[in-house]
Amino acid sequence: MQKIRITPYELDSMRPTQKITINPTLRQTRFIKSCLGESTDQTPIWFMRQAGRYMAEYRAIRAKHSMLDVINSPELSAEVTMQPINAFGFDAAIIFSDILPLLTGMGLKLDFIPGKGPQIENPLDSTKAIDMLATPPAEVSMQGTLDAIKLVAPELEAKNTPLIGFCGAPFTLASYAIEGGGSKVYAKTKALMYTHPSAWQRLMDKLVTVQVDYLVKQVKAGASALQLFDSWAGAALSKADYIQYVQPYNTKIFAAVKRQVDAPFINFSTGTHAYLEDVAACGGDVLGADWRMPLSNAFAKAGDMAVMGNLDPIALLAPWRELRYRIDQVLAEAEGHDGYIFNLGHGILPNTPIENVQRTVDYVRSKSRE
Ligand code: CP3
């Protein structure tokens, strides 16, 4: 007989809950309205990784404080979150943090090594290590970020700008936890998945438990929208593997969070053009599109979801004529769609010229006023 497993978030979802709602004034901003498929006066625009090294103000903070110090300090995170809003007037802010510190509460040791990126000192190298992982409440590892949200939300509200909270998706976080850092082919992650499918399931369930708790608490703290970053599933997995090893868990996250909060939720991934319909089927209000596919494809796969994307971040390194041509292409593909948010297909690069960011924001605004 098959054993029925009830995980803590499933237990939680069986209890009746009063849904957490977002600020009613921010609900009427063009970013939130577009997320919910409503028509707006202009196309909203923000950039993934909009707070970062391409800004001198950010580099000045990082010259004095480590990445983890900034993440763990509510004051510094709040300050960095505001930098791109103050500089460019984006239509949404994203809380400055990272997807990986959530793993520290589970028992993994994280550091950001300059020039190398994130490293896990004690990666998961056995099924026993998976079974030893803790599933503590978000405050254990993310108190600094939750406090940063509380601090910065009122400041953003005064500018009528909604704040996006976020979390890494189970596969993307598991890949760091198992590989110990970034990876090109995800060999250890996939070998574990194929060799010990039940341990994979236990790992995914643990991640879902902490992710759902953390996402809900970000809305409680003052975030008006959420984004799930599944950055690497598409780089690693076939359609069949995605459906078997990822989709059930991402689906649980969208469903469990949506049961508890009434905030728009962005379902973002990259490299998933071969099975974007399966990504969309996981849930959420907005489907993220990277630059590898025409935006019209994303609209076709999104059903009644809104769409966000998909300018190639490297277009921002090109001369203005070329950049403008590429912005025009994206906007032409989005023409006539209400639920559309202009963004890059992935995060902005550190060597992006600042003037191209301003020009892009101004140009998208001027075009959508026509
Ligand atoms: O978008 C924002 O402005 C909010 C902040 C944010 C960061 N990371 C800041 C950061 C967000 C949303 C993330 C998410 C994140 N982090 C993802 C998913 C999104 C994506 O880009 O795919 C992933 C995979 C990570 C893991 C991560 N963190 C990597 C691979 C790196 C190193 C890469 C690099 O650019 O150096 C980080 C570090 C990191 N996270 C930086 C920033 C601004 C650079 C740190 C620094 O040196 O200042």
Short description:
It contains 16 helices and eleven strands. It has helices at residues 8-14, 30-35, 56-64, 67-72, 74-88, 127-132, 139-158, 170-179, 187-195, 197-221, 233-236, 239-260, 276-280, 295-302, 320-334, 354-369, and strands at 20-21, 93-94, 110-113, 117-120, 163-168, 225-230, 261-262, 265-269, 286-288, 306-311, 340-344. A seven-stranded parallel β-sheet has the order 2-5-6-8-9-10-11. It has a two-stranded parallel sheet with strand order 1-7.
Overall description:
With 370 residues, the chain is α/β, with parallel strands linked by helices. It has a single domain (8-13, 22-369), classed as Alpha-Beta Barrel (TIM Barrel). The chain contains 16 helices and 11 strands. The protein has helices at residues 8-14, 30-35, 56-64, 67-72, 74-88, 127-132, 139-158, 170-179, 187-195, 197-221, 233-236, 239-260, 276-280, 295-302, 320-334, 354-369, and strands at residues 20-21, 93-94, 110-113, 117-120, 163-168, 225-230, 261-262, 265-269, 286-288, 306-311, 340-344. The chain is globular, with a radius of gyration of 20 Å. The mean pLDDT is 95. Bound molecules: coproporphyrinogen III. Coproporphyrinogen III is lined by residues 48-53, 62, 67, 94, 96, 98-100, 112, 117-118, 166, 172, 182, 229, 231, 346-347.
